[in-house]
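Re-running the complex after MR caught last week's input typo. The corrected sequence lines follow. Everything else is unchanged.
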Amino acid sequence: MSVAKLDLKAIGVRGVNAALHDLPKGSNETQWVIENPMGQHNIACGLDAPIEVTLSGHAGFYCGGMNKEATITVKGHSGVGTGENMMSGVIRVTGNASESAGATGHGGLLIIEGDASSRCGISMKGLDIVVGGSVGHMSAFMAQSGHLVVCGDAGDALGDSIYEAILFVRGKVASLGADCIEKEMRPKHLAKLTELLEAAGFDADPAEFRRYGSARKLYNFDIDNAY
Amino acid sequence: MCGIVGLYLKNTDLQPTLGALFEPMLVEMTDRGPDSAGFAIYRNQVDQDHTKFTLASDNPKQDWKALDADLEKALNCDVQISPVGDHAILITDGDAGQVQQWLAEQRPQIRIVGSGRSIEIFKQTGLPQDVADKFDLINAQGSHAIGHTRMATESAVTTEGSHPFATGLDLCLVHNGSLSNHNRLRRQLERNGITFQTENDTEVAAGFLTWKLRQGMSLTEALEAGREELDGFYTFCIGTADGFAVMRDPIACKHAVMAETDDWVAMATEYRAIAHLPGADTARIWEPEPDRIYIWGDVQ
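Corrected-run output:
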C-alpha cells in the first residue's frame, strides 16, 4: 500500500487537515505522512476515519484533538493539549508532551513515550493514557473515567478531585490531591494494567505499579471538605 | 498572551548569524503578541572601564550628535553615540552614575532602556517584523538574545510598556503572563528608591529583581525571593551577561518549551518559534518544570 505525503510547509495546517477530512468513507488511502510539521498547532485534528497518520517531526498544540478512529504518531515532541477530547483511536508521541495531554479525552489510547508535563489527563472521561516517563503536577485532575498509567514518577497533587478514573504509577508520587488515595491492586486491575502496557509496547513489570483512585468523599457536599 | 523567546549560542562560530537565527523566533510569536515587540542583544562587549547605554527617544528628530558633544563637555569624558532606529547606543568611559544623572537633568525626554557592557535593548510598538526591521535585527551578530512579543493586558500599548525591561547591568527581563499584586509591590519598591516609567506589571517584576540584586543577592537568590513575593501567572526569561535564565510560577500555566543541542540552547513560549533552528529536529526538547530556575552561562 502506498504512503501519501502531505507537506505542511507547502499546504499549511488547513491544507493538511482538509486532505485528511475529505477522504471518502472506506478509502484505500489509509497511510499518510505529514512532513515539516514545524511545531504548528492543530495538526491532524478532528480525524474520523481508521487511517494511519505519521508526523515526521515535532507538533504544536492540540495535535490529534477530537480524534476518532485514526492512529496518529508524532515522531518527536508534542505541544499543549495533545489528543485533547479524543474519542477513540490511538495517538503515540515518541518524545515528550507538554501540559494537558489527553485533556477531557472520552476514549481511545494516548501513548507518550517520554515525559508528559503538568495536568496530564485533566478531566479525562474514558480515555486511556500510558506515559513511558513521568507526569507533572495536577495530573488526572478531576479525572472522571479511563486509566492513566505512569511508568515514571508523578508530580504534586496527583488525581486531585478525581472521580472514577484509575491511576497506576510505578515511581514516586510527589503528593496526592484532594480525595485521591492509594488503593488495593486487585487481579482485575493488574490484568487491565498488563493489557495497557502491552498495547503501548512498554516493557514494564505491572507488579511494580501502585494503584490510586478516588476516596469518594467529595461526591456530596460535606462541610468537612470546605477549606 | 504574549510570546517570549531566548537563544544562547554555545557554538561561537554561529555568533555572526545570531540575528538571522533569532529574528524568525521573534516573528513566529506574532500571533501571541502583535501590539509591540522588543529584544535584547548581547554583543560587542566594551572594556571594563566603559559603560554601554541603550537610549530611546520619542522625538524622531533627536539630535544625538549634540547630545554626544554636550555630554563630553559636561563630564569631561569620551562619548560615542551610534543611532539605531529611534534608539541609540552610547558608549562612554565616564562615570555611569554621573551620565545617568546628567541625562535625567539635561535630556529628561530620553529614556535609558538598558546599560551594561554588552547588552543592547530595542523595543517599539508595532508588529514584531516591523520592529525587527527598524533595528536591523536580521544582521545582528552576538552571543545571545532574548525577545518578547506583546499582547497588552495590564497596561497601555506604548514603547515604554514594551519588554525587555532592564533590571541591572547587562540584565533584563521578559515576561509572559500577568502579575496580580504589582500595584502594592510598586508602591513598596518606590519607597525603597526604585523608580518606574510605566504602570506595567512586568516593570514591577524587573524593579523587584533590581532591588534584590542591589542588595547584593545573586540572580538565583533574587529569583527565589521573587517567587515568594510576585503573585500571578508567569514565565520569565532573564537575559544575563553570559546567558539567560528561565523561571515559571508554581502553577505553570503560561506555556514554555526549551530545546538544547550541542550548538545552542533556546526557550520559547511555543516550539514553533524554535522549529527552524538548525538541528531542532533532533534537539532535546522539554517543558521547563514549575517553580524551578534554569540558568545557562556564568551567573551566580
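None of the earlier attempt is carried over here. Chain A touches chain B through 21 residues (CB under 8 Å). The helical segments of chain A are 8-21, 187-200.
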